[in-house]
Design a protein that fits this description.
The complex is a heterodimer. By secondary structure, chain A is an all-beta fold. Helix content of chain A is 0%, strand content 54%. The chains are: A mainly beta, B mainly alpha. Chain A: One of its GO terms (molecular function) is metal ion binding.
């Protein structure tokens, strides 16, 4: 029988530093809630709003798969592997931190806020060689369907990471119904509502709610409002 | 990275932290300071980790955990979780 966990938008941790207004679905930085630590290997789901021209100075990471999805605005990235880029809505960026990497992330626009999702997954292999990837996605490919944007396979659709995880993004018309099939036995699916209202396996969800479902193979989905947007993170429930 | 973790640990009121870059250093610091928690970061080979875990087994009150992420994001959470 399917099991589930509901994280309402207002259950998230919140830290407003002025230049950074951050909401943490799972415990992060100084926000600690032992009931909301992770969903399988999904450890961090941060919804960050960064003021124009501001950002995260050079800082280190190791042994983590870090995925960044800009929702609005643009984000400038630089890292110790020599990568320098600007990502915006429609792009997805991945960094396998592995043995260690330094990077910075700044709002590329001096005047307009950037809103991004930053997601951290535990890797399935420790101390890999650090790696960076990014891709521009076709937004038309997610209308009334789940567009795969990340997988464990370099030759599959979207970016790839060191984990048996698949991410999908979708944007739906009101009343559109479909189902999501979990990609691998032992995985669960975490639905994060980027905007609008949806119903997942009978559970009504509002903007920025999160809902994890596991011990099942197929999950029903219905968009309740026009333009409802959802991110699905299909991840192993057990840490390797 | 070790310098940053050292600063973060010692910025937290009531906490005192040390960082080691070699197994010998880690063993010496453990023997001298009897820490409550040891975090293993990146860059340690499987053989080095095995050696460290064998050494820490001689200190039953020391909790040994893996540190993920590299910076401040999960550091405080990892320690709070193991201490609670």
């Amino acid at each position: 029988m399917a099991q589930s966990v509901l994280h309402k938008e207002n259950m998230r941790g919140h830290a407003n530093h002025g230049w950074l207004d951050a909401h943490h679905t799972f415990s992060f930085a100084n926000h600690y809630n032992p009931e909301m630590m992770n969903f399988g290997v999904l450890r961090v789901l941060n919804d960050d709003r960064v003021a124009g021209g501001r950002g995260f100075g050079t800082h280190p990471h190791d042994n983590m798969e870090i995925i960044t999805i800009p929702l609005t605005g643009s984000l400038a990235h630089q890292d110790s592997m020599g990568n320098s880029s600007v990502i915006k809505n429609g792009d997805i960026q991945v960094m396998s931190a592995g043995t260690g990497v330094y990077h910075s992330e700044y709002n590329a626009d001096p005047d307009t806020e950037v809103n991004l999702l930053q997601i951290w997954l535990f890797p399935n292999k420790k101390n890999v060689t650090p790696r960076y990837g990014q891709q521009t996605l076709d937004l038309n490919e997610r209308h009334n369907r789940f567009q795969q944007v990340l997988s464990p396979n370099a030759d599959d659709e979207g970016v790839w990471i060191h984990q048996d995880a698949w991410f999908s993004l979708g944007s739906f018309d009101a009343g559109f119904e479909t189902s999501y099939r979990i990609r691998k036995e032992g995985n669960g699916a975490y639905f994060f509502v980027i905007g609008g209202k949806v119903t997942v396996n009978g559970q009504e969800l509002d903007t920025r709610d999160g809902y994890g479902v596991w011990d099942t193979s197929e999950i029903s989905f219905k968009a309740e409002t026009a333009g409802a947007e959802v991110l699905i993170m299909d991840v192993p429930m057990q840490l390797q | 990275m070790a310098a940053i973790l050292h600063r973060l640990l010692n910025n937290k009121p009531g906490w005192k932290g040390f960082t080691a870059l070699t197994n010998t250093e880690a063993q010496q610091l453990t023997a001298d300071n009897k820490p409550q928690v040891v975090l293993l970061g990146s860059g340690i080979s499987t053989a080095e980790e095995r050696e460290l875990r064998t050494f820490f087994a001689g200190f039953p009150n020391v909790k040994v955990i893996q540190h993920y992420g590299g910076g401040s994001g999960l550091l405080y959470n990892e320690i709070q979780q193991v201490l609670s």
